[in-house]
Design a protein that fits this description.
The structure holds two protein chains of two kinds. Chain A is built from six helices and five strands; from the N terminus they run H-E-H-H-E-E-H-H-H-E-E. Chain A is an alpha+beta fold. Chain B has a single domain, classed as Transcription Regulator spoIIAA (2-Layer Sandwich). In chain B, helix 1 runs parallel beside helix 2. Classes of the chains: A alpha+beta, B alpha/beta. The interface between A and B is medium-sized, with 25 and 20 residues.
């Protein structure tokens, strides 16, 4: 990137309210380090304690999802793009990662079902999942991760699947407004 | 039974279990890479203490400043054990400390009170320093 392009890149990120952006391979160590940076950035931004906690918790669950659901067959590691932006009402936390295309119908069904729940229903589902001894064997996070995001968000979690790629993977975006 | 002490790390809380003194303390953050492998031995120790059935009282103090969803599940398992101990005659008191701005922890405290009626829960919101 030329220096003048970099300058535009920074200006664009500022005008979009980008507080934090990471695009690259993720492992637990990376997640812990970028989590620490995100906390500091939110503090600098003057986010309230409550907001900052919800943004951090949502970010962490999304990052954890990347580790759990990132498609197998990525020998170089698990790629994830994570971004936190501020808007007039609060923050937007967005995540993108590859997942196995054959899992898409199941994940879509779960996302749609949580999208259709009121905040109160999300809380009830969260409590049920917490108490359940028999989590969905396909969901390594017991489905609690998505419900945790939904509990923190001010609106239902948005999602988009890109067209499946020939290598059997599909790119998934999740977005939470906090 | 021996005491257990795990010092805090950036991703895991300090854990102290002193069966003679009837004390269990957990403080710090909880988002270990593998939640199961961190909490399984702790659950095992608590289960052993509870199964012995000799404990007249147990004071549990928790102040977890951040916990991920998988850790919340592990806490639920711990509370199940403690509730069982309480039903077996042990006086279990939970000091549930949380930062006052932490809505999730506040709600979790309420849920514990409702789901585990035999545990005496003290709700202790902490003012940020």
């Amino acid at each position: 990137m030329q220096i003048n392009q970099f300058s535009q890149f920074i200006a664009h990120a500022r005008s979009e309210g980008v507080v934090f952006f990471h695009s690259g391979l993720l492992d637990q160590e990376t997640i812990a380090s970028i989590g620490a940076v995100l906390r500091r950035r939110l503090q600098e931004e003057g986010a309230s304690g409550t907001q900052s906690r919800k943004v951090f918790a949502t970010f962490m669950e999304m990052a954890q999802n990347v580790l759990h659901y990132a498609a197998a067959g990525q020998p170089e590691g698990k790629f994830g793009a994570l971004s936190v932006e501020s808007d007039e009402q609060g923050y937007q936390v967005t995540c993108g990662n590859f997942m196995a295309s054959d899992q898409v119908p199941r994940v879509r069904e779960r996302l749609e079902s949580v999208q259709g729940m009121s905040h109160e229903l999300v809380r009830q589902a969260y409590r049920r999942q917490l108490a359940s001894d028999d989590p969905d064997p396909d969901s390594k996070g017991a489905g609690l991760g998505l419900l945790t995001m939904a509990v923190s968000a001010r609106q239902p979690i948005e999602f988009t699947f890109e067209e499946p790629a020939p290598d059997g993977t599909t790119f998934l975006f999740l977005k939470a407004l906090i | 039974m021996d005491n257990l002490h795990l010092p805090a790390t950036p991703l895991t809380p300090e854990v102290r279990l002193n069966p003679q003194g009837g004390l269990l303390t957990m403080r710090g953050e909880s988002y270990p890479e593998n939640v199961l492998s961190f909490y399984a031995p702790i659950l095992e120790r608590i289960r052993a203490v509870v199964d012995e059935g000799k404990l007249p009282l147990l004071q549990v103090e928790m102040h977890i400043t951040y916990y991920n969803s998988a850790s919340a599940k592990a806490f639920h398992r711990i509370f199940q054990l403690l509730n069982k101990a309480a039903e077996g005659g042990c006086a279990v008191k939970l000091l549930w400390r949380y930062d006052e701005e932490d809505d999730m922890a506040r709600d979790l405290g309420k849920d514990i009170r409702e789901d585990f009626p035999s545990i005496h829960v003290e709700d202790l919101p902490m003012t940020a320093a």
